[in-house]
Design goal:
With 779 residues, the chain is an alpha/beta fold. The strands form 4 sheets. The chain has a 7-stranded parallel β-sheet with strand order 13-19-18-14-17-15-16, with helices on both faces. A 6-stranded antiparallel β-sheet has the order 3-2-9-5-6-7, with no helix packed on it. The chain has a 4-stranded antiparallel β-sheet with strand order 10-11-1-12. Helix 8 (225-282) runs antiparallel to helix 11. The chain has helices spanning 3-11, 14-34, 49-54, 72-78, 81-91, 172-176, 193-203, 225-282, 288-325, 341-363, 369-453, 476-501, 508-514, 542-557, 580-592, 611-614, 623-628, 660-664, 667-679, 695-699, 717-728, and strands at residues 38-47, 95-102, 105-108, 114-118, 128-134, 138-143, 148-153, 166-170, 185-190, 204-208, 215-222, 459-473, 520-525, 567-573, 598-602, 648-651, 682-686, 705-711, 735-742. It is flat. The protein contains 21 helices and 19 strands.
Length: 779
């Protein structure tokens, strides 16, 4: 960072700094002289939390850390409105008395030679101030706001004056010699009680000492030290009384609660025992352990019975399938292990008859009537066996459903055992707790009675209220130093914000910070309308000199043309209004005045501007007409007769087309440029802004040099960042930057400070009054 440059940047605004310092230093000096000094009065008290914990009837604490240093409750009490209301009433803080020393400053006085007697409630007192003088007739009271004067005759305070919220009389000491106070002037400020409480709360600071447990520091800030000490003393007295009263309330409430709790204890115990009795009866429980054994055994029995029944179902199903698959001459099995004697006997009978049929078959043929009769009987008997088995199976299924229901009931009873045991355990635990609590309550009652008999406060005053007579406000040295620093920081801050928020381009460094690798081709000064066209070959105007310097710098960017073709120079900018048409126009004139054949083409088909410099109609035929119809010869649209140079031809934009982007990208335009290169030394293209439309980027590759226009105090730096992207992507080639519209009166850093050109050293740029202290040569 160049510190010298940064210093000079702010130094140019030195009058602002000087004026700010004068204002703030003067205001601080007057403030110190006018405002009464404010003093701090402090006191320290100690609250013994250990004693308080020992005297507690019931102590419940889950914190491992001791609560001895926690004084939040006391701090909240001392700063509460209700507590401070007592201080206001006891010290009569609705009235503040001052002795007038001079008109801008008053000295607070604690004792005045008169007494005010309010005629309205202190809560409804108006917030107002009165000036009071004592004379030989009585009192003269003035309202400085309305300048109304009240006269009270006599010193006894019996007269009530309409419009005054109080009566006034001399104090006992002042009555002895009233003339002693005739030359003095006093001021009395009245505030309602609510406002007095608010003022007291704002001026009171109560905090705990971090290094000493149980210590409270109280501070009161006021311009009257005597009154501050009285306020702190009154706070200590009221706090002490409040502690004792709160303890009395706690002990009284505790004893009352213990008596009531002991009285109700018997009823609560009986109620719990009744609940236990009903619970045992409703659940058919005599002894919980026996109940558990009984229900567990019942569930096991039901489960075993269900398993046997399921086994019989499986066996019966197997027997049915086996019998169905057996042939007419096959014996039926008898080892199915069915618990049905009927079925087993029928199987035995069937097998016996089957044996008889086989004996008959051995002695006779299968056509024997006896054999046929016996086989018919076997078939019928087999069907009877199957029917009997089906009936047995249905019976087993019914038993299975009944067993599942009974087993579910038994399981539910077993599962409910933990819940019932838990409920019964809670009832027993509650009974035990009641018995233990009863004993504890009796003990606490005795402790409460003893503590109430020896009740005392645990507050002690460590340091009585003392006033530090070194004024805390205003402190002259610190106040003047603060005013000096603020007087510097304010204009510095304003200047910094102004410079920080300014994103416009003002010099070459602003451009180089964004795109530092792009050369600066020149600077076009800001000129008035009368100077715009003064750019002839013999002219020494500012615009002429700047244009010649631009042409010279552009020549260094032009590539060496080995084919003797004309060079294409493209003028563009970021946005509208930066003066690209203006610069292209003057550059074309300057080049044509150097005996070079120049073709100036208006390629901005959307908002053409060149016709304005030649005083012709905007709708004149030109480029758009040729591009729309290639059969036309573009030379027919040239304007050769102009008042600027015989070497300059102009091809205006022509009629505004509906599709400029499509029109400019067809091959007609490229053909025009190639043909013009053979005729002209330079082809100047006045194009559209690159950030608004893409027209220029579509044919930028045709240019040998791209002159990018930025305008002084107009172009934003963010625009340059976007253009830098176009350059990196090679959408714009061989780019140089031209700064347009440089204000010679305010520009800093361009070299225009004294004059422009060797011919015009007498033309001096005027600088603002706040910059004249800087040497213009530094620019």
């Amino acid at each position: 960072m160049d510190l010298k440059k940064q210093f000079l940047k702010y130094l140019q605004y030195w009058p602002w700094f000087l004026v700010s310092l004068i204002i703030f230093m003067s205001a601080a000096f007057v403030f110190i002289k006018v405002v009464p000094s404010t003093y701090e009065t402090s006191a320290t008290i100690f609250i013994d939390k250990k004693q308080e914990d020992q005297n507690k009837i019931i102590t419940i604490s889950t914190d491992k850390k001791s609560n001895e240093d926690k004084l939040e409750d006391e701090i909240r009490l001392m700063t509460s409105n209700e507590f401070l209301l007592g201080v206001v009433k006891n010290l009569d803080l609705n009235f503040s008395y001052f002795e007038k020393v001079y008109t801008v400053q008053n000295n607070y006085v604690n004792a005045v030679p008169f007494v005010l007697i309010p005629t309205v409630s202190k809560d409804s007192l108006p917030q107002i101030s009165y000036e009071i003088k004592i004379d030989n007739q009585g009192f003269t009271i003035t309202d400085p706001d309305s300048e109304r004067v009240y006269t009270v005759k006599g010193y006894d305070g019996k007269e009530a004056v309409y419009g005054l919220p109080f009566k006034i009389r001399l104090s006992a000491n002042a009555k002895k010699k009233p003339s002693y106070y005739f030359e003095n002037e006093y001021k009395v400020s009245l505030v309602p009680t609510s406002e007095a409480v608010k003022n007291l709360k704002a001026s009171l600071i109560v905090s705990s000492d971090e290094n000493a447990k149980g210590v409270l520091e109280m501070k009161h800030i006021s311009s009257n030290p005597d009154r501050s000490r009285k306020i702190l003393n009154e706070i200590i007295v009221l706090l002490d009384k409040s502690i004792v009263i709160n303890k009395q309330k706690v002990y009284a409430n505790t004893v009352s609660y213990l008596n009531q709790r002991i009285k109700n204890f018997t009823k609560e115990k009986d109620s719990i025992e009744s609940v236990k009795e009903k619970y045992l009866q409703n659940n058919d429980i005599a002894v919980m352990d026996n109940y558990i054994v009984e229900k567990t055994a019942d569930r096991s029995q039901k489960k075993e019975s269900s398993l046997l029944n399921e086994k019989q179902i499986s066996l019966a199903s197997f027997a049915i399938n086996d019998i169905k698959q057996a042939g007419p001459a096959q014996t039926l099995g008898t080892g199915y292990n069915l618990e049905s004697p009927t079925v087993n006997q029928m199987l035995l009978n069937y097998n016996a008859k089957l044996l008889d049929s086989q004996l008959i078959l051995q002695r006779a043929s299968s056509n024997n009537p006896a054999y046929i009769s016996l086989m018919t009987q076997l078939k019928v008997q087999k069907q009877e066996i199957l029917n009997t088995l089906e009936g047995y199976l249905n019976f087993l299924n019914q038993n299975s459903r009944a067993n599942r229901s009974e087993q579910s009931i038994a399981d539910a009873k077993v599962k409910s055992i933990p819940t019932k045991d838990k409920v019964l355990g809670n009832i027993n635990s509650n009974l035990n707790t009641k018995e233990e609590t009863y004993v504890a309550l009796l003990q606490k009652k005795e402790e409460a009675v003893l503590n109430g008999a020896i009740l005392e406060s645990n507050l002690k005053t460590l340091n009585a209220p003392e006033t530090n007579y070194s004024a805390i406000f205003p402190q002259p040295k610190a106040f003047m130093l603060g005013a000096f620093l603020f007087g510097l920081l304010l204009p510095f801050g304003v200047t910094y914000v102004r410079l920080y928020l300014d994103t416009k381009i003002h010099n070459e460094e602003d451009i180089q910070d964004v795109i530092g690798d792009i050369p600066i081709l020149g600077h076009i000064p800001k000129i008035n309308n009368n100077e715009k066209l003064n750019n002839t070959a013999t002219s020494h105007s500012l615009i002429a000199e700047a244009s010649r310097a631009l042409v010279s710098n552009i020549s260094y960017l032009l590539p060496r043309n080995k084919e003797n073709k004309g060079n294409v120079i493209l003028f563009t900018s970021s946005i509208q209004g930066e003066g690209k048409s203006f610069c292209a126009f003057h550059n074309a004139i300057t080049m044509s005045n150097l005996n070079k054949k120049v073709l100036l083409i208006g390629v901005d088909l959307r908002k053409p501007q060149l016709h304005g410099y030649f005083n012709i109609s905007r709708n004149s035929l030109g480029l758009s007409n040729f591009l729309a119809n290639k059969s036309d010869d573009w030379k027919e649209f040239l304007h050769k007769d102009n008042n600027f140079s015989k070497n300059l031809d102009v091809l205006f934009a022509g009629d505004p087309p509906p599709n400029p982007s499509q029109l400019i990208t067809n091959s007609n335009f490229e053909s025009l440029i190639e043909e013009a290169r053979k005729i002209y030394d330079y082809i100047i293209l006045d194009t559209a802004p690159v950030q608004i439309v893409s027209d220029t980027l579509n044919f930028s590759y045709l240019a040998d040099v791209t002159v990018f226009i930025v305008k002084y105090d107009y172009t934003d730096k963010s625009n340059l960042a976007q253009v830098s992207g176009f350059i990196k992507k090679e959408q714009l080639k061989n780019v140089g930057i031209l700064i347009n519209g440089v204000n010679l009166k305010t520009a800093y850093g361009y070299g225009y400070g004294v004059s422009y050109g060797y011919q015009y050293q007498e033309v001096k740029a005027k600088r603002p009054w706040y910059k004249r202290s800087l040497s213009v040569k530094e620019a």
